[in-house]
Amino acid sequence: MKLMSRTLVAGLAALLLAGCSGSGKKELPxxxxxxxxxxxxxxRSWKRNIGVGQGELFNKLKPTVDGLTLYAADAKGRxxxxxxxxxxxxxxxxxKEPLSGAVGAGGGRVMLGTLNGSVIVxxxxxxSELWRAQVSSExxxxxxxxxxxxxxxxxxxxxxxxxxxxxxxxxxxxxxxxVLTVRGHSAPVVSLHxxxxxxxxxxxxxxxxxxxxxxxxxxxxxxxxxxxxERMVDIDGELLLNDQTLYAATYQGNxxxxxxxxxxxxxxxxxSSHAGPAAGFGSVYLSQAGGTLExxxxxxxxxLWTNDSLQRRQLTGPVAFSSYVAVADFEGYVHLLAQTDGRxxxxxxxxxxxxxxxxxxxxDTLYIYGNSGDLAAYQLR
Length: 381
Description:
381 residues; mainly beta; Methylamine Dehydrogenase, Chain H; four-stranded antiparallel beta sheet; 1 helix; disordered N terminus; Outer membrane protein assembly factor BamB; membrane; palmitate; BamB; cell outer membrane
């Protein structure tokens, strides 16, 4: 519990840092929403309640899509499998564990992590439990699989690979945890032969998926400042693997493009973000911790546009959706921006209790999971 308390405090501090300049001045309020002439509209095609949603802790229980099925879970252990086109329920189960890391799917499995450090794996067909395994600390990000191993990143910054059939541990990778960290982790990226992960130390590591041997490690942010609070450089947003380039962003650090084979830095830009980058139409998009949205040329890191109209609104990570960039905020609004110049072109409110996890895009549908537990599908009109 000591580790959990430490990271919860750090998470609150990080939110304060996002809205303050560090000069001791009173925190500024969230920016009021600007009026604009809507150019596009989001229409809801279906909505389904999953349960209590994110719960009382600062969970980020992001749903996932595998094939034609959408999987979602709530903080009290409800797991629901739905038809992604209609929202009709294929199956649902209630686990007797508080969930904190959800949901991973693939290889015929649905994978979840708990506050108590359990990894629970269900059958994709009916939700029956196949196995569960205990790891060293709470799991705050969705477990991932390549069909052979299930890889979990724990809050104490360990990476654990479990046999997908039995749950037996194949290997473990341990790293040094800073004194103070933001509560949260990005989910590892697992390919057939490699595992990529962002660490609380501001490093990205690539491991052999079969045996966990490190292939390369790259520091993408150098801790700065005199206090431990100032020196936090966690990688909490999702990593993005696009072709042969791996993108990662740190809190109080950089947005970096890495060669996925060697770990060499192709380019970097100073930034501070709790969310992961998105890519589309040759651009990389990022939500800064303070609420600024940025777009960069994907190959050269040239700044393309900046939108600062959503300052201090606790933005989710962005996603590329059709010709737009979609991002949600703490009041439950989903904002659409033009990919070309970042202007606001559409907005809809989906949950009065807010949205904490990035939208999901599948084909022509945008899925939004609100903090209250409502999961909805939207399409452009």
